[in-house]
Design goal:
Blueprint: H1 2-6, H2 9-31, H3 36-42, H4 44-76, H5 85-97, H6 100-111, H7 115-139, H8 143-151, H9 156-186, H10 199-207, H11 211-239
Helix pairs in contact: 2-11, 4-7, 4-9, 5-7, 6-7, 7-9, 8-9, 9-11, 10-11
Amino acid sequence: MSRLRRLPIDVWFEPIVILVIAVGYVLWYRSTTFTATEQASLGWDNLQTTIVQHIELTVVATVIVVVVAIPLGIALTRPALRRLEPIAVNIANIGQAAPAVGLLVLFTFWLGTGFRTAIVGLVVYAVLPILQNTIVGLRQVDQRTIEASRGIGYSAARTLLQVELPLAVPVILNGVRTALVILVGTATLSTFIGATSLGTLITTGVTLFLPKLLLSGAILVGLLALIIDWLGRLVELAATPRGIS
């Protein structure tokens, strides 16, 4: 019990919320009569494929964003490239400021429809949180700590890897969590450009006026976002060096 009290409240409270919503949805699902279209869409075989493809969209886009944004953020905090930081952040901000649907449609004209186009659109849309948090996390490392590591003979690269990055991890991972949640929600829009996702349930529910299907899609997207956010929080907590809150 004392160990539970020491944990941040969101670490143990969020799974309770997820469980309550999931149980409530299952009880509602089992007590509701669905039309043939709703049954086909919400049948486990079809639903499993839809959920897996939605997760695949989210994970692939996240991996690409992390591979691009974190090294770029590190580079922009180095003295040689520091002057380029405002330009890079403003360019990343354009992707986030643009309406997600409009962004996906624009890429459709260039790349066509399907999974690849959806990934490109999602990557552009989610770069900013990770890039910005990487820069902020590295910038907030105490300069005296960096000077002390250099004073004991650490090279610039070793100082970055063993001092700056570990201290910046909580802020960087918070940006990754934010990007993940953004991507889970935005991935629903990929259905408009021919990529299967949980958005298919929502758009089908709207188009055919099937509110139960629409509600199911919205609840499943919300649950997926909460689960991914909680898992990201656990990773953030585990990766944070002791003594850093």
